[in-house]
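The record is kept unedited without comment:

——
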Amino acid sequence: MKRLVLMLCLLAAPAFAVEPDEILDDPVLEARARELSQGLRCPVCQNESIDESHAPVAQELRVVLRERLVAGDTDAQVVDYMVFRYGEYVLLRPDARGANLILWLAAPLMLLLALGVGWATIRRKADAAEPLSADEEAALEEILKQ
């Protein structure tokens, strides 16, 4: 039972990152804010969203995000504002367009290239192997008998 409680507390820990004074009165705006903040990266924690992060910078970003929503910005306008202000790094999942497309495709292409080079090397070495001569086979049989 204690383990279950501990696991539930650990799983619920990211939910505690949003401070009670940050939560908006309008539940619809708050839901939008939570959804948007899950897609924005904390500059300090790097692979945590600002929704999960306890860093002061993440708190500031959450406050700015909510201010923009209260001001009437659409979701796209809020994200564009954050990208303009903090750079594309703030997006947890950057767009796969333009220069980013090269980054998205580079790893799979390099993997395919490495597999091709490895396969060609193995095939070349396998084809280059010569069968044993009669003397070598006799010597091998002698060694195996010992």
Observations:
- The first helix runs from residue 2 to 12.
- The CA atoms of residues 20 and 59 lie 11 Å apart.
